Amino acid sequence: MSKNIPPITKKKRKANRSKKVGLPAGSLVYFGNKEKPLNIEVISYNDSSYSMKKVVSAEEALNFITDNCITWLNVNGLNNIEEVKKLGNYVQLNNLLLEDILDTEHRPKVEILDEHILVIIKMLYYGKDEQLISEHLALVLGKNYLITFQESEGEDVFEPVRKRLQNTDSSLRKRP
Fold first, then answer.
1. Please, which residues bridge with residue 10 across strands?
2. Disulfide check for 136: which of 6, 69, 76, 104 has CB 3.0–4.6 Å away?
3. What is d(CA 23, CA 21) in angstroms, rounded to the nearest whole number?
4. Nearest to 85 by CA among 95, 75, 71
5. Over the chain, what is the mean pLDDT?
6. What pLDDT was estimated at residue 129?
7. pLDDT tens digits for range 87-123
């Protein structure tokens, strides 16, 4: 028996590769078509505390990273190249890796670096119209931080994770 599975569709976007023509490798260009203000959600937690705050700059977000908790910076708005670059500089990503983060049509990959791991994947979820949607997602995982880069904040697949982190008894908060 075959099950009716809707086809995977990409959010309506047009990769604007013409912006990149003639530029050297490592030039930071946003390829998507969603121009939106930067929105960074900062979640800091450990086994005994949890806090969530929305900020609008990389500098403000990076101030929350400390040794006594795990900090998750969820970045929405990849068209803000300067702010993405500031976050990349903090975790010592070179321009070639930042270019991969900004390229919404980049193929999935994993880069294991000295101090962290960079993962670029396609996030799959069902939209409101029951279409299966594929969206660009980049993650940088370090010792006490996670930075997620999303093109937009449309359908939020991270909401169940946030709810679990808010729960004091959650096993997620007890893991180092």
1. 134
2. 104
3. 6
4. 95
5. 81
6. 82
7. 999 988 988 899 888 888 889 999 999 889 999 998 8
Per-position b or e across 99-118, b if 16+ CB within 10 A of its CB: bbbbbbebeeeeeeeeebeb
For 161, the token pair is: 């994770």
In SS3 terms, 28-61 reads as: CCCCCCCCCCCEEEEEEECCCCEEEEEECCHHHH
Cβ density class 130-147: b for 16+ within 10 Å, e for less: eeebebbbbbbebeebbb
Q: What is the pTM of this model?
A: 0.80
Instruction: Give Cα separations from 44 to 5, 84, 147 (angstroms).
Output: 38, 20, 12
Residue 97's Cβ-count burial label (10 Å; 0-12, 13-18, 19+) is buried
